[in-house]
Amino acid sequence: MIEPRMDHLVYAAPDLDALVAEFTERTGVAPVLGGRHVGRGTRNHLVGLGGAAYLELIGPDDPAEEPLPAVFGIDRLTGPRLAAWVVRPADLDATVRQARERGYDPGDIAPLSRRTPDGRLLEWRLTPNRGDRFDGLAPALIDWQDARHPTADGLPQLRLVSLTGRHPDPSAVGRALAALDVTLDVTGGPAALEAVLDTPRGEITIS
Question: Which residues have a Cβ under 8 Å from the Cβ of 123 and sit 6 or more positions away?
Fold first, then answer.
């Protein structure tokens, strides 16, 4: 089962242009430019996953700049990685409080923003990309506030067939997920998120 409140998946790489080109070749679908993240040194490209969910391809705005941004571990990557998933709860503040009461701290809520190619500034709130996310298996939490959601802009579409995870301690991940009231199938193994996408060129797996 795919978590019904999933907002987006984060596919990160140290060279975004190369990632977009490789993804387009594999899928037959070209992600569109989302924009630049203000003050973070990253930009993204987007593709819809059906409904109000999408895939974000993210990397350095300038791959030659040193050091690379630490966002989603980009500065440590040697290739593409499905680095995170993001859930949109009905009440972000209440969800964070509840998770802490249940023994899992998803992190403090911070403001973020992105400048779109047409000049609009999108502003939202997110639990930060730090703390114990169990190598990306525990989701970040987002509140888009009054911002126009990325899927409202007519993104090119793929279908998310499945999202699963592996971790050396799946029971610990399960406790964090339960504290957040979210669902993800997690089995034992080296830490990884794995998404299966239905594309014009057949099903592909990204992890």
Answer: 111, 112, 113, 145, 147
Protein fold of 6-206:
2,3-Dihydroxybiphenyl 1,2-Dioxygenase; domain 1 (3.10.180)
Question: Residue ranges of the domains in the chain?
Answer: 6-206
Which of 137, 37, 31 minimizes the C-alpha distance to 85?
A: 137
Residue 123: φ, ψ to 5°: -125, 135
Report field, pTM of the whole predicted structure over 0.85:
yes
What does pLDDT average to over the chain?
A: 94
Task: Locate 89 and state its tokens.
Answer: 């709860």
Residues counted in the chain: 207
Whether 147 has a pLDDT exceeding 80, the answer reads yes
Measured from the Cβ of residue 173, the count of other Cβ atoms closer than 10 Å reads 21
Cα-based torsion angle of the residue sequence 176, 51, 124, 186 in order, rounded to the nearest 10 degrees: 20
Amino acid at 202: G
Closest-CA residue to 161 (of 21, 27, 44, 31): 27
Go through 23-41 and write b for each residue having 16 or more CB atoms within 10 A of its CB, e for each that does not.
Answer: bbeebebebbebbbbeebb
